[in-house]
Write a structure and sequence with these properties.
Layout lengths: L26 H9 L9 E3 L10 H10 L9 H14 L6 E4 L3 H11 L6 E5 L4 H8 L4 E5 L20 E5 L11 H10 L5 E5 L12 H5 L4 E6 L12 E4 L2 H8 L9 H12 L3 H22 L3 E2 L6 E5 L4 H10 L2 E3 L9 E5 L3 H16 L1
Parallel strand pairs: 1-11, 3-4, 3-5, 5-6, 6-7
Antiparallel strand pairs: 2-8, 7-8, 9-10, 10-12
Helix pairs in contact: 2-9, 3-9, 4-5, 10-12
Bound molecules: pyridoxal-5'-phosphate (PLP).
The site of pyridoxal-5'-phosphate has 15 residues, from loops.
Amino acid sequence: MPHFSRRSFLHLSAAASAAAVLRGMSEPMLAAAARHRPPHAKDAVAIDSNENPLGPCQAARDAVAAIIPQGGRYADNLTDDLVSTLATMEGLNPAWIYCTAGSTPPLFMSVLAFTSPQKSYVTADPCFEAGMMMASTAGARVVKVPLTKTYAHDAKAMLPAISDPEAFYASNRNNPTATLRPPADIEYLAANKPKDSVVLVDEAYIHLTDMPSALDLVKAGKDVIVLRTFSKVYGMAGLRCGFVVARPDLLEKVLARGAQNFMPVTAVVAATASLNDSGLVAERRRINSTIRQQTFQWLDRNGYSYIPSESNCFMLDTKRPGKEVREAMAKENVLIGRTWPIMPTYVRITVGTQEEMERFQTAFQKVMKA
Ligand SMILES: Cc1ncc(COP(=O)(O)O)c(C=O)c1O
């Protein structure tokens, strides 16, 4: 009888065991599995999970503090407030939006709803592994399409000759390469995919780019499902809030794949306050971009190669097995991100605070010169 504990995922080698794993793993679980030890090592610089070190904005913190006395209530009306705020901002019908604890749950549910041993899952490579792991669990064939030489998604290659209906996963910006999928590519997929298949557009990082959202395709009634999270630009990974937007018939199929429950009141009030903070996204983008550019300048000055990015992470080429570099960095108490089998010398680096990136630079220089 297999023994599963809350931390049993730590014994899995994240990317390598993707096909063998029997359940879904989220970004922090994948990051913790890659580092082979529990998440919060004391004093460590944690730039391995694409978190936002700034945390929730002040308005969100105030909203969380103010709601605590009502923590004994389910208060589902607060989620209605969040949904209606979102609907107004994005010009959506509230009935097409469903709030969840982060966007990993609706990603898993969507994959379960639209893949099976007869329905494949098509994704870029490298790409966020969570969906492909869940597709494997569902017994689906996972079709990985390598990125182009310029690390762009290859939309046309994602429409291989498979006659069965499929789910196409498109992450905008891609995790881990932080490269973009142009809107035309998503439109192309949506227009040319086999009938009855869906395009899953993961917009976890959409706020870090000027790229238009795929929400317009949802509004136009296409077979497109959009996933959003408050874990990235809004700094709410630990508070857990996200949502899925789709045509009601698609939404119903997605939601049929998971047990539903009310949202934590802390998460929904923080999310609503974050949305109402009009300057927040631009400010966070500016901070992320400044620190990222400074890091790139340092890498350039020191002759290191990386894939240019406009997101909160980038791929750094260590020119040696990335896993060894990651382990050596962990000994310096700097936790960097995992490698992907298709790019074994690259490690993913999350853009942290200025101080964290300075500690990263010191440790990286030491490891590379050892
Ligand atoms: C591409 C992508 N999608 C979704 C998520 C989900 O995050 P969460 O479950 O915290 O909303 C992540 C987290 O890193 C991600 O990188």
